[in-house]
Write a structure and sequence with these properties.
Length: 250
C-alpha cells in the first residue's frame, strides 16, 4: 500500500502580481519523512512554506496537508519561525512562550488549564529546557530560544513540524546539537525544514527539496555537486557539521 503523503502539491503555480515565483510544482512528502528545503535566495523557499501553512493560496493547482486543506489542519501542524529580536525587558518566561502553543486547544476564556501546563512542561522537557522554564525568554541564548520555540510547537500536539531557517545565527556546536534534537523528533513527527545552508543536509535528512522557481525532490544520497551547481548557479561548498570536527565536502 502506498505511503500516504503528509504534504502534497499538484500543478501549483504562484506569483506576487508578476513573474511566477513557483511554477508547475508537483511535490509529495511522505508521512514520517524528514525533508530539507534548499535553494537560492528569491527562489521560492519561503513562498513554498507559506503555501504549506495555508498562509498563501496558489493561483493554480492544489495543496493538501495531512490529507486536507492547509487552513483546516493548522492545529495539527507545528510551526517554528525564524528567530526574531526580543525586548529584554518584556516580562515573558520560557514557560509562557511554550504555553502559547496551546492556543486554539485551550478554552476560549479564562486561564490555561492543568492539561495545557502538562503539555507545555512535557514539551520543554523533551527539548531539554525544563530547567529554563522560569527564565526570561529574551535572556536565553540563541540555541536555547530556538529550543523553546520548538517546545511551543510541540505543546500543540502536532503531527507535522515545519521550521523556517531554524539554524540561522547559531554556532556550529549548537547547530549540531539542534540537528540531534530534530533527528530524535523525526522518530514520531514528519519534519520539513527550510534552510539557506545546503550544508545542513545531514545524514538523517531523508529528502532534499530543491527550489528555484521549479521544485524537485531527491533522496539525500542523490545530492551531488552537479545538482547543487544547477540549483544555485555556481559551485557551493558543503560543510558537514559534527560535534567533533568539520568535514569539507565538494
Amino acid at each position: 500500500m502506498p505511503q500516504p503523503y503528509a504534504i502534497e502539491l499538484n500543478d501549483v503555480w504562484f506569483s506576487y502580481d508578476g513573474p511566477p515565483v513557483l511554477e508547475d510544482v508537483n511535490l509529495g512528502i511522505p508521512t514520517g519523512d524528514f525533508a530539507c528545503v534548499v535553494g537560492p535566495n528569491g527562489g521560492g523557499k519561503t513562498t513554498l512554506l507559506k503555501l504549506m501553512l495555508g498562509l498563501l493560496a496558489p493561483q493554480q493547482g492544489s495543496v493538501r496537508v495531512l490529507g486536507d486543506n492547509p487552513e483546516l489542519v493548522r492545529r495539527r501542524v507545528g510551526y517554528v519561525p525564524q528567530q526574531s529580536q526580543f525586548d529584554p525587558k518584556f516580562p515573558v518566561s520560557a514557560m509562557d512562550v511554550a504555553l502559547t502553543g496551546r492556543l486554539g486547544r485551550t478554552g476560549l476564556f479564562g486561564p490555561y488549564r492543568r492539561r495545557d501546563r502538562r503539555w507545555a512542561e512535557q514539551a520543554l522537557e523533551e527539548v531539554g529546557c525544563m530547567d529554563l522554564r522560569k527564565r526570561a525568554f529574551p535572556s536565553l541564548s540563541g540555541g536555547q530560544r530556538q529550543r523553546v520555540l520548538i517546545a511551543r510547537a510541540l505543546a500543540g500536539e502536532p503531527e507535522l513540524l515545519l521550521l523556517d531557517e531554524p539554524t540561522a545565527n547559531l554556532d556550529i556546536k549548537v547547530e549540531s546539537e539542534f540537528q540531534d534534537l530534530l533527528a530524535e523528533l523525526n522518530k514520531r513527527l514528519t519534519i520539513v525544514l527550510v534552510s539557506h545552508d545546503v550544508g545542513f543536509v545531514a545524514p538523517f535528512v531523508k529528502t532534499v527539496v530543491c527550489v528555484r522557481h521549479r521544485v524537485s525532490a531527491h533522496p539525500t544520497s542523490q545530492l551531488t555537486g552537479e545538482l547543487i551547481r544547477d540549483l544555485y548557479g555556481q559551485d557551493v561548498r558543503m560543510i558537514q557539521h559534527s560535534h567533533d570536527c568539520l568535514e569539507a565536502r565538494k
